[in-house]
């Protein structure tokens, strides 16, 4: 079935140009075009459009969205603008828009956008998680990679990893990726991007998991602005159901802003028989400034031996608060897997590590039917 497109653009020349792009896009049929939104609202129904391309520049976008979603409840509304503003996009999506595209666009760009929107559904209820560690070598990159795969497999939804460990991000090495673009370019160019262009900066790992890779050279860190980084995360919310952010160890501008943007921050610590527990306690203290701390900050320990409920309770007692997950010592599996560019949850799905990652995935998804006490 061809898409039946209705186009609304105030500028006459631009209307002409966009109409041509729609007509030459394979699988798209231009059924109506209007210079005025009120004409489109009054007369367009006759043509039964299932996609509405709606100009929002110099318009009251919220009111337009309200009117169009009421008159055309079955159509997918895609907003068009000459600029990309991450905040503007989110509010249009919240108002019911299926997508957002920068004009002018080519036939190819239109096709690609609609395919992306159809797949991601422009999720507004994206769940963003930052993995923070008080110090380096916490096992968090390993945890993120495995958890992302587990989430993708279980939910069959889109999962995005953002490697914002700006100086030494190694997500790309974990998955054996050779990225065409990294977070540096994404942050740099975000002002000119739509969610669809941002999508192309993510490297595909599986059908459900995509990674925005970290910088290839530590000295490029200067080129990543916090503002730009925040806009990348905001826009990525339109592409993925789950977003996992890897940040540098300790409190840095990046790790703080990622945590502030996140729904949940996991404070990840690897037990090495040293002062790790004290460091975790001190890091958690700092997060306690947040009013919703209990809901938004959750400690996780890796390399826990034995990895059982008793160890978890002991850690909880020492910390004086709940521990969200304990991950076993799995050095062997983790390093073998990484050498293959694959992850433990895939190659050793029955291992203790995979089981504990899957349990955390279940918690993230919000199903609590997997019980702790194994038979
Ligand atoms: N659960 C684990 N048990 C044992 N070793 C682990 C575990 N997770 C990670 N490692 C090892 O610890 C090192 C650091 O892991 P990584 O995930 O890169 O941590 P971070 O991102 O905090 O630096 C790696 O050598 C990795 O193989
Ligand atoms: Mg790391």
Could you characterize the architecture of this molecule?
The chain is of the alpha/beta class. The chain has 2 domains: 3-120, Response regulator (Rossmann fold, 3-Layer(aba) Sandwich), CATH 3.40.50; 127-167 and 241-365, P-loop containing nucleotide triphosphate hydrolases (Rossmann fold, 3-Layer(aba) Sandwich), CATH 3.40.50. Helix content is 43%, strand content 18%. It contains 17 helices and 13 strands. The chain has helices at 12-24, 37-43, 61-71, 86-94, 107-120, 140-155, 171-174, 183-189, 195-199, 226-236, 253-261, 276-287, 293-296, 309-319, 331-340, 344-347, 352-365; strands at residues 3-8, 28-34, 51-55, 76-81, 99-102, 127-132, 159-163, 203-204, 209-212, 242-246, 264-270, 297-304, 325-328. The strands form 2 sheets. The chain has an 8-stranded mixed β-sheet, with helices on both faces. Strands 2-1-3-4-5 form a 5-stranded parallel β-sheet, sandwiched between helices. Helix 8 packs across helix 10 (226-236). The radius of gyration is 23 Å and the shape is elongated. Mean pLDDT is 88; it is low at 367-375. The structure holds adenosine-5'-diphosphate and magnesium ion. Residues 140-141, 165, 170, 246 line the site of magnesium ion (MG). Adenosine-5'-diphosphate (ADP) is lined by residues 133, 136-142, 302-303, 327, 329-331, 334-335.
